[in-house]
């Protein structure tokens, strides 16, 4: 049975060619490749998400994991991260001027803390795959293979045997 997410994720065709097509299955000659070009920050980002974009995008672009066609998914990652950072900021106690009655302040601070922790708990499993998609965790970088920009392409001694 299963669904479309069952089993291992498919490997890129270029990686299969480099490994000599170990599964001996037909290679996908029509695999899409992203068009070259500069990555632009979407204008629809909120101000906090734009700050997250400015912080994370240069690293992802340098690693080659963020391309023009990935900008929408990366924008969603930035919005989710901005929401998490907002929730983390809500866990701090309010300034002294807002503490008019100690009992009311304690009730509100517990409610604020509980709401912030619920947001963090709900968003953590949602945001984790986005970090993996763009190689922003050490484990995901070990699994991602991107061509080096300066290096000459590696030609396998078996490259001609596949034709």
Task: Lay out the secondary structure.
Elements (H helix, E strand, L loop, with lengths): L12 H6 L28 H17 L7 H19 L12 H32 L4 H6 L20
Helix pairs in contact: 2-3, 3-4
Decide which structural class fits the backbone: mainly alpha
Question: What's the main sheet like?
Answer: none
Q: What is the count of β-strands?
A: 0
Strand content: under 5%
Domain count: the total is: 1
Write structural notes for this entry.
- It is a single chain.
- This protein is mostly helical and 163 residues long.
- It has one domain (13-23, 41-162).
- The protein is 49% helix and 0% strand.
- The two termini are 35 Å apart.
Main attributes of the structure:
about 160 residues; mainly alpha; about 0% strand
Short description:
By secondary structure, this protein is an all-alpha fold. Helices cover 49% and strands 0% of the residues. It is built from 5 helices and no strands.
């Amino acid at each position: 049975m299963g669904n479309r997410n069952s089993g291992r994720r498919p490997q890129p065709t270029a990686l299969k060619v480099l490994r000599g097509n170990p599964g001996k299955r037909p290679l996908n000659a029509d695999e899409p490749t992203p068009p070259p070009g500069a990555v632009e920050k979407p204008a629809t980002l909120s101000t906090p998400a734009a700050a997250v974009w400015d912080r994370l995008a240069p690293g992802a672009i340098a690693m080659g994991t963020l391309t023009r066609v990935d900008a929408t998914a990366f924008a969603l990652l930035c919005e989710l991260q901005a929401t998490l950072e907002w929730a983390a900021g809500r866990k701090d106690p309010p300034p002294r001027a807002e503490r008019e009655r100690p009992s009311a302040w304690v009730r509100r601070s517990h409610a604020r803390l509980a709401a912030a922790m619920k947001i963090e708990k709900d968003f953590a499993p949602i945001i984790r795959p986005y970090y993996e998609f763009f190689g922003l965790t050490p484990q995901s970088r070990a699994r991602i293979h991107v061509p080096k920009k300066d290096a000459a392409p590696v030609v396998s001694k078996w490259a001609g045997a596949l034709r």
